[in-house]
Amino acid sequence: MGLFDRLSRVVRANLNDLVSRAEDPEKVLEQTLVDMSEDLVQLKQAFAQSLSSQKRIESQYKKSLMEANNWEQRAKLAISRKEEDLAREALVRKKSYSETALTLNEQLNQQNAQLETMRQNLATLESKIGEAKTKKNILIARSKAAKATQSLQKTMSGLDTSTSMSAFERMESKVLDMEAQSQSVGELAAAGVEGQFAQLEASSEVDEELAMLKTQISGSSTPQGILPESTEDSDFSSKDQITDDEELEKLKRELNNM
Fold first, then answer.
1. Does 135 lie in the same domain as 196?
2. Predicted TM-score of the model (pTM)
3. Which of 93, 177, 237, 249 is spaced 20 to 30 Å from 231 by Cα?
4. pLDDT at 40 over 80
5. Same domain for 179 and 148?
6. Whole-number pLDDT of residue 180
7. 112 in any annotated domain
8. Could you tell me if 206 and 112 lie in one domain?
9. Model pLDDT, residue 231
10. Range of 182's domain?
11. Total domain count, the chain
12. pLDDT digits (tens, 9 = 90+) for 76-105
């Protein structure tokens, strides 16, 4: 294979590829229907011309038959009048018209066959056009759906879904942290209030117990105006007071060390 042949094949291949990629299904289908409709118009025109030709041939055929019959009658008339030469001439004319009629009859048969073929072609082409119109609408709808799907796929492929989902996850984590912080603050506030009430309750209990102790001590102490019976009891009382003072001092030291 020569260089120019190979180069020509490469060029044709590239051109075919460009044409194939440039083809829009909707436009190609529309143009195909236009071409088929133009073919149908041309075929109808040819059929009309053939039909007109058939009628003309049929008229000539009938006229030739009629002329052949007329010259036959004239030949008979000439023979009856003993005019053989005239009868012979009439038969020559009859023969000519008969041959013309025979030729026209052959043409008429051919024309009828051609018209029948054209009639079938017309019916077939009209049927194909109707079918093509239905298919065109379906194919155009499918083409549009395919284009929409392809566009959607391109859009989806251009989206970074992992980054978007990561952002959602970060925001979800942040919201959870904020909710946890809010709950903790609420719990701390509740704990502070409960602690204050607990302190109040504890203070109240201590005050009550202190009052009870005061009552007990005051009830057990010696009433005023009554003197001790002996000095021994006074000595014991003084000793008990010293012991109590020591206990109080010890208690103060322990409380201060706490």
1. no
2. 0.47
3. 249
4. yes
5. no
6. 81
7. yes
8. no
9. 45
10. 174-216
11. 2
12. 999 999 899 999 999 999 999 999 999 999
Greater confidence, 221 or 121?
A: 121
- Is the CB of residue 129 less than 8 Å from the CB of residue 37? yes
Domain match, 185 and 119 both: no
Say whether both 61 and 114 belong to one domain: yes
Mean pLDDT is lowest, of 125-134, 147-156, 157-166, 224-233, for 224-233
Residue 119 included in any domain: yes
Cβ proximity of 63 and 107 under 8 Å: no
Residues 131 and 180 in one domain: no
